[in-house]
Input
Amino acid sequence: MPQTAINNIIRKLIAGEDYYPEVLNAIDADFLQYTVDFFKRIVKAKLDKKSVTADWYKEEFLLSHSLSDTEMNTIRLSSSEQIVLDTTLKHYDVLCDAFNDLDMEDMGMTFTVKFRGVSFSLSLNESLVFFNTLAVRRSTLQNRIWSETRKQIKKPLMIALCALFKVPKKYYDQRNLPELQRESDFYLFDDTGKDYLGEVKLMGKGNPESADAVYARGGRILVVDKLSEMNKQQMDKDSILWVELQAEDGYKRFESVLKALSIPYEPFTGDLKEALDKILPVILSDDVHGYLTPEVVL
Output
């Protein structure tokens, strides 16, 4: 995920705006590049007088995991992508049987594709391989980019909130966490050194996993984009501190979290856009897991 997109997503989250278009734009950009690469591979196959059959599909896409030479050398498959590809391989014979059950000759259908001045025709069988490949790729891209987005914004989002309220760095410095705590979303600390686990979940309103995560890991703080009223009531009952960013001025509820944990802060009364214009470049220029002294930024 480009840092520009991460910047925009964090900005929109804190401002209570819809961040989905930013993720969809990233998915569309990757998918467009993949589609162009796929066209190139089909052109090469047709110029080499090869048929774009199910066997070609298996060799060029499933077994190589990609149609882009660049991707094959640089992209490491996520677990979700691997699951999709493994499942598709297992059902490869079913795919072939489905193609073979179609009476291609009676249908007499072909699709003509023109790419950079080269024109070629795909039979119905070849076209089904083409569309199936793109559909699988779109699915894997969506899974990977949504997963990457959620992982990449958690710590910078929390650091940005701490910076807005000028929390001294020692109360949220993540560099000296015990080994078992390093995979956690975020920790806050009070003056005694006691740590408070925070969970950041961007799942959408009504998704029970948003609330369940904080219980499963013994968390004390939950920061989400949207949260159902039922989950809010349950967490209030269980003394779990929560922040719903897409509520009106939702980010300001983080002040009540800091107050409840006796963590020093200053109320934020400035212009949110201007503050984020100063904070986000500092966070994202020093790696998205970087640490800053908010007094220097604001």
About this structure: The beta strands are 110-115, 118-123, 186-189, 195-201, 221-224, 241-244. DSSP finds 13 helices and six strands in the chain.
